[in-house]
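testing teh design pipeline on a random one, pls ignore if ur not involved
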C-alpha cells in the first residue's frame, strides 16, 4: 500500500550536517508510524528514530540515545515526505539509512514491526 524512497545520502565530514528524505507513495502516509533505521555490513538493522502517525491522540518522537540532540525527524504529510535532519555527524553514523512505515502503535524500535521499507541511502561520515 505504501512505497518508500530514500534520498539525500552522501559523503560528509565529521561535524557536518545532512538531510535525508523519505518520499512515500499513496495517500495513506499519515496513517503510519514512520521510522528511520540504519545498518552497517554484518550487523542488524538499528533503530534511529520514529515519529507518530498524524491524527492520533498524542504526538511523539523517539530516538536512540546515540543520536538524541543531533538528529531530528520531520514529516510533511501534504508532501508525503519524512525527513531526517542530521547534524554533528560522527564517523560512527556511517551506515545505510532506511525509512520504514509501521501500522502498529507499539514496538516501533523493532525493524520486524515495519510493513514497508525503502531501499536505503548511504551516509558516509569521514573523520
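output:
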Amino acid at each position: 500500500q505504501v512505497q518508500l524512497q530514500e534520498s539525500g545520502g552522501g559523503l560528509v565530514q565529521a561535524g557536518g550536517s545532512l538531510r535525508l528524505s523519505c518520499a512515500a507513495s499513496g495517500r495513506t502516509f499519515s496513517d503510519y508510524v514512520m521510522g528511520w533505521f540504519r545498518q552497517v555490513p554484518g550487523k542488524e538493522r538499528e533503530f534511529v528514530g520514529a515519529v507518530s502517525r498524524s491524527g492520533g491522540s498524542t504526538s511523539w518522537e523517539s530516538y536512540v540515545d546515540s543520536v538524541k540532540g543531533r538528529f531530528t525527524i520531520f514529516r510533511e504529510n501534504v508532501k508525503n515526505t519524512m525527513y531526517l535532519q542530521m547534524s554533528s555527524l560522527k564517523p560512527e553514523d556511517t551506515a545505510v539509512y532506511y525509512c520504514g512505515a509501521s501500522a502498529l502503535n507499539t514496538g516501533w524500535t523493532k525493524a520486524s514491526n515495519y510493513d514497508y521499507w525503502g531501499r536505503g541511502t548511504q551516509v558516509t561520515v569521514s573523520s
